[in-house]
Write a structure and sequence with these properties.
It is elongated and about 135 Å long. By secondary structure, the chain is α+β, with helices and mostly antiparallel strands. The protein folds into 2 domains: 355 residues, Outer membrane efflux proteins (OEP) (Up-down Bundle); 85 residues, Outer membrane efflux proteins (OEP) (Single Sheet).
């Protein structure tokens, strides 16, 4: 008889096991799957017209890259006081807090409970009949209304069978790392913007100095033309033309002064302070040497550029979010347990084991019918993952193109600057030459006027080209991923 019962029990257990296996298989079969293509991380082995050399200026710290102590002091101040950067710091801290929150979700939740309750039930109910007819210690009846006091600890724990919670926690880690790289990218942009404005300010100082020098030359020429008119060797038309040129450059001087004020205030805004003078040495700006920049190889951009690394971490987080969304189709297992003391009178609350309360319960919940919301969330997760793939590929392509553009820009600006230097020298000499010829009545006043105007324009263009060279150095450094370290 015992053997027969054992066989029946074994058969029944096997059937239950088979049903469980079939149910699990059915759940797996009903889970949708969307294939997402892998990201393309390939880049050319070298930049166009560049040799393969791993020496990379992008890894140089910004305090070593910028030699001007005034500029270094400005950047130092901005990295402490800039409001937008400080906002980014708070976002990074919030992302870090998100890791802590996700980490707690796959650990047991334990809560303390203390409560008191008063309840009056109807006599013609099961509980009411028990209270009226049963007596407890020493003939005492249940109190009416019935009170209830409870104290204890109760825990709930969701078993992370499908790694949903752990994937969400890992995704939060990648989101935090992404926010850190976002902060680093913000630093590179801020450093670059400060350097841009600083060099622009120095270029404006030099442009203003050129205008003032040219005004002295033009005012001397105006005096000369007036003397020539008195000697009947020039006309009133020549005097008026020279006066107009002087007035035009005086007006241009005020325009440049306004640009200087606005550029200084832009720098002060980036430094998080009210408008004040920006300390700088602009006298030797035109003679500033242009240091060589080494671009390294394109594959280094994947490690050096904060925006590329940020896109990479966002992609990793999106992949884990997709796995977590897929886990919603599977059964969720929860364990609930409690241990405490319960009695209808506080004097019995510490009487053990009679007042001891304990419970253990396990739940399994699985979506069966109407899973549209879960399907939609899974589809959205896969779409976000595909978006992250495209964002990552776009970041790599953008980084490569930025470096390629700046490499070409630096070479072309170098050639352009050398030609403009020769142009300035030739036109500067033409001013003195035309003035002597005019004094000897061998050329008209218009020749002197044109020589002065062309010399002024060439000097202004030379300053502008020098500024563009300095900015190209900064932009190249930023494109290589420098400025945040």
């Amino acid at each position: 008889m015992v053997t027969t019962r054992k066989k029946e029990t074994m058969i029944r257990n096997r059937k239950l096991y088979g049903v469980a296996v079939l149910a699990a298989a059915a759940f797996y079969a009903c889970v949708p799957t969307r294939e997402i293509r892998d990201e393309n991380r390939t880049v050319p082995e070298q930049y166009q017209n560049q040799s393969i050399d791993t020496v990379n200026t992008g890894v140089v710290q910004w305090k070593e890259f910028f030699k001007d102590p005034n500029l270094v002091a400005l950047i130092d101040t901005a990295l402490v006081n800039n409001q937008e950067l400080n906002i980014i710091f708070q976002q990074v801290d919030m992302a870090k807090n998100g890791i802590q929150a996700k980490k707690g979700e796959y650990l047991p939740f334990v809560n303390l409970l203390a409560g008191a309750e008063v309840e009056k039930v109807g006599e013609y109910t099961r509980n009411g009949a028990v209270e009226k007819n049963l007596e407890i210690k020493e003939g005492e009846e249940f109190p009416e209304p019935l009170t209830d006091y409870k104290v204890g600890a109760f825990a709930t724990w969701e078993l992370d069978v499908w790694k949903k919670l752990r994937n969400e926690k890992k995704a939060a880690v990648f989101e935090y790392l992404s926010s850190v790289e976002g902060k680093n990218f913000m630093v590179t942009q801020l450093v670059s913007e400060i350097a841009d404005s600083y060099y622009e300010l120095m270029a404006l100082d030099n442009a203003l100095a050129i205008i003032q020098q040219n005004l002295e030359i033009q005012q001397n020429a105006l005096k000369m033309v007036k003397l020539q008119k008195q000697a009947a060797r020039a006309t009133e038309l020549g005097v008026r033309r020279f006066q107009a040129e002087v007035l035009k450059n005086q007006s241009h001087k005020y325009e440049i002064q306004q640009e200087i004020v606005e550029t200084e205030n832009k720098l002060n805004f980036l430094l998080g302070r009210t408008p004040q003078h920006i300390q700088r040495e602009s006298d030797n700006f035109i003679d500033t040497s242009i240091d060589s920049i080494y671009a390294g190889i394109p594959s280094q951009l994947l490690q050096n550029r904060p925006d590329v690394r940020r896109a990479e971490f966002e992609l990793a987080a999106a992949k884990l979010d997709t796995k977590a969304a897929k886990a919603n189709f599977y059964p969720q297992f929860t364990i609930k347990a409690g241990l405490g003391l319960q009695a209808f009178n506080t004097k019995y609350l510490t009487t053990t084991p009679e007042s001891v309360l304990y419970s253990v319960m396990g739940d399994m919940v699985a979506p069966l019918i109407n899973r549209n919301a879960i399907k939609a969330e899974y589809k959205n997760a896969t779409d976000r993952q595909l978006q992250a793939v495209f964002e990552y590929e776009k970041a790599i392509l953008n980084a490569y193109i930025e470096v390629a553009n700046q490499l070409s820009n630096i070479d072309n600006l170098k050639n352009s600057y050398e030609l403009k230097e020769g142009q300035v020298q030739a036109l500067t000499e033409s001013i003195e030459l035309s003035t002597r010829l005019f004094q000897s009545a061998r050329v008209e006043y218009i020749e002197v006027l044109l020589a002065q105007r062309e010399a002024l324009e060439s000097k202004m263009e030379l300053v502008e080209t020098k500024k563009d060279q300095m900015l190209a150095q900064v932009h190249m450094y930023r494109a290589l991923g420098g400025g945040w370290n």
